[in-house]
Amino acid sequence: SHLLFPGCELTASTKSYTFQVDKEDDSDHILALSVVCLRDGAKDECNVVEIVGRNHKNQEITVPVANLKLSCQPLLNLDNFKLQPPVTFRLAAGSGPVHLAGWHQIVHRDDASFEEDDDLSEEEEEELPPIMPAKK
């Protein structure tokens, strides 16, 4: 099921927000970030938003995802950038306010449709032509 992520707002006084799920929940969760934008009252300064999460080796990583400035880029569409909770959004530079919005998907592990979506039948697979070497 898809749930609207009501979002969060990062400001000079609230520089971070952590999205997490109950550790007892055995469902798979995906948080998709759709848009990052400056709100009313933002100054014409660089506002850098970072995401702090974990990589496939469970090591903490920090990735900058947006650098917004009122006069040149007040909004950034992240095209449903998918993250696995827990994840922290942090205002690394600037004073905001910066608003983040997206959606939250919950996939129950006993949901058979989850497995069907990942497997392509032989009929759906396309034959790709062989890769030819470049001509000199």
Automatic annotation (TrEMBL):
Residues 113-128 have a biased composition (Acidic residues). GO terms for cellular component: cytoplasm; nucleolus; nucleoplasm. One of its GO terms (molecular function) is chromatin binding. SUPFAM superfamilies: Nucleoplasmin-like core domain. The keyword Oxidoreductase does not apply. Residues 7-105 form the Nucleoplasmin core domain. It holds the Pfam family Nucleoplasmin. Its main location: nucleus. GO terms for biological process: chromatin remodeling. Plays a role in the regulation of diverse cellular processes such as ribosome biogenesis, chromatin remodeling or protein chaperoning. Modulates the histone chaperone function and the RNA-binding activity of nucleolar phosphoprotein B23/NPM. Efficiently mediates chromatin remodeling when included in a pentamer containing NPM3 and NPM. Interacts with NPM (via N-terminus). Forms a pentamer with NPM at a ratio 4:1 (NPM3/NPM). Two pentamers form a decamer. Belongs to the nucleoplasmin family. This is Nucleoplasmin-3. It comes from Pampusana beccarii.
